[in-house]
Each structure stands twice: as C-alpha cells, then as structure tokens.
Amino acid sequence: MFPHIKTSKANREVVAKLTQRLNLGTENMISRIALVYSLSKDRILNLKDLKDSGGKEYAKQVLLGKEADYYLGMLALHYQIHINNPDMPKYVKLHVDDGLSLIDEMLSNQQNLEGFDFLVELIGQGITQLKE
After folding, report:
1. Phi/psi class of residue 23: alpha, beta or left (left: φ > 0; alpha: ψ in -120 to 50)?
2. In sequence order, what are the beta bridge partners of 57?
3. What pTM did the predictor assign?
4. By CB atoms within 10 Å of each CB, which of 2, 11, 67, 101 scores lowest?
C-alpha cells in the first residue's frame, strides 16, 4: 500500500517535544495517539491542506504497528473510501500532522499535565462524547 509517511517540518520538533514531555514511549506512539485524536474530532480534513513532508519519517509498520488495518479501517470509514485507496497515505499524514498540532496546542495550555494524566483526560473526553 505505502512504505512510509513523513510529518511536516514543523511537527518534527513537536513530536520530539511531546514524546519527551509525555514519556509514553517512542515517537511513533505519540504519532499514533495524534492520528486517533485527530480522527476523534470527527472533522473531514481536506487533502489540499496537506503540509510539507520535511519532518519525521515513519515506515508504515513502525507508525501503525500490528494494528495497521484498524487505523486504516478507521480512516476508510471516516472518509467513506476503500482501505486500499491511493490517497490513504495522505489521509494518514493529514491526521498525524493535525493531531500533533492539536495535542501540542492543548498541552501548551496545561503545563502540569503529564503522560498518564493526558491519556486519562483524553479517555474521559471520549467517554463523555459516548454519553451524549
């Protein structure tokens, strides 16, 4: 399908900063969280808004791991496209970049929030949305 994706140049520093601050594992972990966090916002992003590819490069297997089909399936359902759509890597990149930016912005307003607390907050937000 696709061998790799690259984040935007601006997000190269963001992913390193978030990885260090949240201490949730390697950089690919925060990028996975960013992908799903962006999708959780239930917005349709436009491929015309793709940013540059001057940032962190991830092999598909490293970024998505053994659960690649689940991540790609969520994107396919969200955009009503086939999982093998040639634009799938663009959607992955779009949501990783978007999620990294959203998380960075959120954490800039919550200086004391650490990794575990960050995840608990996100899970709480998700549960609240399910109740509505």
Report:
1. left
2. 6
3. 0.88
4. 67
Burial of 100 (0-12, 13-18, 19+ CB in 10 A): buried
Which residues are CB-neighbours of 31 under 8 A, at least 6 positions away?
7, 15, 56, 58, 63, 96, 99, 100
For residue 111, count CB atoms less than 10 angstroms from its CB and return exposed for 0-12, middle for 13-18, buried for 19 or more: exposed
Identify the bridge partners of residue 59 per DSSP, sorted by sequence position. Answer: 4
Q: What tokens appear for 126 in the block?
A: 């998700």
> In what helix (H) or strand (E) does residue 58 lie, and over which residues does it extend?
strand 57-59
> Which residues face 6 on adjacent strands?
57
What does the pLDDT look like over 117-131, one tens digit per residue? 777 777 777 666 655
Write the CATH number of the domain with boundaries 4-131: 1.10.1220
Alpha-helical segments (H) within 7-114: 9-22, 27-40, 60-64, 68-79, 88-108
Q: Where are the domains of the chain?
A: 4-131
Strand, helix or coil at 98?
Answer: helix
Tens-digit pLDDT profile for residues 21-33:
888 889 999 999 9
